[in-house]
Amino acid sequence: MAFLILPTLFVITLGPTIPQVDRFSRRRLIATSATMPAMRTLDRRLRTSATGVLDTLFPPICAGCGRRGHWVCGDCRPTIQTLGEPACDRCGALWSLRCVCDQLPDAVISIRSAFPFDGWVRHAIHCLKYEGERARARHLGDLLIPLLPLGVRVDTVVPVPLHPTRLRERGFNQAMLLARRFSASLDDISVVEIARTGSVTPQVGLSSAERTANVANAFVVPDVKAVDGRNLVLIDDVITTTATVTACATALAEAGAHTIRCLSIARAE
Ligand SMILES: [Zn+2]
Ligand SMILES: [Zn+2]
Predict the structure, then answer these.
(1) 238 CA to centre of ligand 1 in angstroms
(2) Are 266 and 238 in contact (CB under 8 A)?
(3) pLDDT (tens digit, 9 = 90+) per residue, 161-172?
(4) N or C end of the chain: smaller count of CB under 10 Å?
(5) Measured in angstroms, how far is the CA atom of residue 208 from the centroid of ligand 2?
(6) How many CB atoms are closer than 10 A to CB 98?
(7) Ligand 2 mean position to 100 CA, how many Å?
(8) From the CA of 94, how far away is ligand 2's center (Å)?
(9) What is the pLDDT of residue 200?
(10) Is the CB of residue 245 less than 8 Å from the CB of residue 267?
(11) Distance from the CA of 75 to the center of ligand 1, in angstroms?
């Protein structure tokens, strides 16, 4: 049995996971993919069974109250707030925040987040990042899908990278897990990694100006061909001052990205 379960867990932990978004959501997105149909079908079947095994071994737990069986239970679901319409249609600034469009490269079309960084959402992201609940990325990744407008063309998904030191400490990049889930929901379009260099100082606790300086020129695109002329979705778990996604988007734009849409689970103020 172990020889069956272990490779399955490998697929779940390191590879993209099974899409569980509804058919409508998947159909409404135009994604480009050159994967062979037969291989895709096989891959999907493997991932379907792998997801079932993982759910059996590590059943979902509500991040709000700890109840087993759901990522979010019926009691906690109504407590989750939405962000509502932003004050700025492009940078997604809320009414309480300053528009940062003047700092964005032209390629950035929009910045959108699903929820305020609070309550269940905050707990869920904490469980994913700091308690190693990687399987939770399956649920959180699906919550990014409605942020894409109808009919938007997406060629490639790019997760915001962790600094290599942080990646060694944590063992995984939560944005990569979200990006893999998101890409699987878009018919397995490619996920491209970019690199992070420079300071390892976390953004948490820094002022807006310090955050901008901390990540300036921190991102490098090793494979320019993978983003040149492409329509990208840049994914992070939490956007606070937009300094990190702005620095990432700037590196991607300089590498020739055609369009960039930045998505995150939560937006903090
Ligand atoms: Zn709950
Ligand atoms: Zn703006």
Answers:
(1) 21
(2) yes
(3) 998 998 999 999
(4) N
(5) 16
(6) 14
(7) 5
(8) 9
(9) 64
(10) no
(11) 6
